[in-house]
Structure formats: structure tokens, C-alpha cells
Amino acid sequence: MRVIEQKTEALRQNEIKFRTLFEYANEAIFILHNGVIVDCNYCTELLFDLSYQDIIGCSPEALSPVYQPNGQTSKPKARDIRKKLSLGKPCVFEWRYLREKREFDAEVSLGLYLGENEFY
């Protein structure tokens, strides 16, 4: 029983560390599941000038203008990025987003988490 308690406490401490890093990062961070934002930090709320509740459940494309700077529409470009990511390689790219109908550019670093300590 003592081993289980130690492992449970270690997991709890790791969760506290993750949450602290996630919430206090000076970068906007959001977590996607099946193309939908399921979690974000406070910096994301500030960047988009939206509440947590307004961000959760959105796709990144919903926070984007119809067209990206290269003239390609956001939805197909996002599909292309997800396809590359599914090959197991992290992606860094420029993306245009919307905040109160004003567009702004951001550098995005995107990695894939598969579970059980597997990040790409």
C-alpha cells in the first residue's frame, strides 16, 4: 500500500508542476483533441481577448481569418499542417489569427502527444 501512496503523491506533484508551467508560461498555449481546443492557459485568453469558456470547444480555424497571408484559406492549410504532424514530426509555422476582427500574425510550434510519455 505504501508504494501506491508514493506513486499517487508523485503523480500529484507532477500535475502541480505541469499546471504551474502551463498557467504561468509567457506564451499562449492550447491543447487540441480531435481538432478542438480542450484547454488553454491565461496567456491565450489575453492574446485572443476571449474568456476561457469562449475558447474551449473552438478549432484554431475558428479563431482565424478566412485567408492566410499566402492566399490559401485557413481550413485547407490547417488540414495540411495536421497531416504533416500526423507523420510524427513537430511543426513550426506562421499563422494568422483574429482578435476582435483584427488580424495578427503568430509563430506556432505544434507537437503531437500520443499518450504514455510519447511526444512528437
TrEMBL record:
Give every PAS domain span. 17-67
- So which domain of life are we looking at? Bacteria
By what name is this protein known? PAS domain-containing protein
Taxonomic source organism? Sporomusa acidovorans (strain ATCC 49682 / DSM 3132 / Mol)
